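Please review this one.

:::
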Amino acid sequence: MSALRLTKKERQSYLSQALEQNPFLTDEEVAKKFHVSIQTIRLDRLELGIPELRERIKHMAEKKFDHVQSLSPSEVIGEVIDLQLHKNGISLLEIGLEHVFERNQIARGHILFAQANSLAIALADWKVALTGNASIRFIRPVQLGEKCIAFATVAEAHDSRLHVGVQTKVQEEIVFQGDFEVYRVSDDRGN
């Protein structure tokens, strides 16, 4: 897609494709991408029957997904949007005041790590799972108000271990990535 003006039909086609590929895009982000006003994007969405961001996220969260066994819902950092045990998952975390350093409004590193780590553990189809090893990389600071979307994928699965890759993005930009080794812990009954 070039910077040239698109026809309404072309723009709506690209809009539909863009939101299908990344339902977390805001109207502002899409308007900037297509060099049109936010109102134009809102009208296009209405004509196409595409709900606003909050409704798209709510719809994704209401979709049926596998039940997390290894963590209670309150232990997952961020909101789980999609989860397929031993396969992949997505979580969303909006960075609030409680997540940032006071003086510079940058998210604390352990918050991004916790989102990725808890999502990696949530993928395990075991009652008790822990992180055995993690290799992480912070790519750029995350600011107050930014929405962090973590995408986790199981790279390898064994009887008692999972190797999970996680990428966290703000908009389309990767801000954090990690490789997690999650292992199964047997409970007292030998399960």
The helical segments are 8-21, 27-34, 38-48, 53-62, 109-122. The longest strand covers residues 173-184. The longest helix spans residues 8-21. The two ends are 54 Å apart (CA to CA).
